[in-house]
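Quick start: what a row looks like.
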Amino acid sequence: MKKADKETRYAELLEEIQALTASESDDIANMANIAAAIHAKMGFHWTGFYRVLGDELVLGPFQGPVACTRIRCGRGVCGTAWKEARTLIVPDVDQFPGHIACSALSRSEIVIPILRDGAVWGELDIDSAELDTFDAVDEQYLSEILTPLKR
């Protein structure tokens, strides 16, 4: 997808998600609608959330094939993003040490931690069936899309 096309789609998506979440305060409801909207608009292989519960990430609302239910801190892309409290963009998941293959079709991935009061409480995880799908444009727009979950 061309950068200009991607930015246009994300701008439209951002408006849609702002309207969907403006009057809703429940995190699970917002995660469900955000995942569905991103997945439908952008056509990724898997789009979903993990929540920090105790010492694990636990699967939350998602769109796509079945997923790993629990991930330990520091394990795989999601566990590493949680441990380091930073966004990870992985151009080729086969090159990421310790990658957890929930789906053999996943080729690249972006994971964006969601922080509240300085701590990670959840993550947005998106997988693509193509290599090198994600970049700074995705990180910028997806981070902004997550604003309703950062309160």
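That is the whole record. The CA atoms of residues 19 and 116 lie 22 Å apart. The domain at 3-149 is CATH 3.30.450.40 (Beta-Lactamase).
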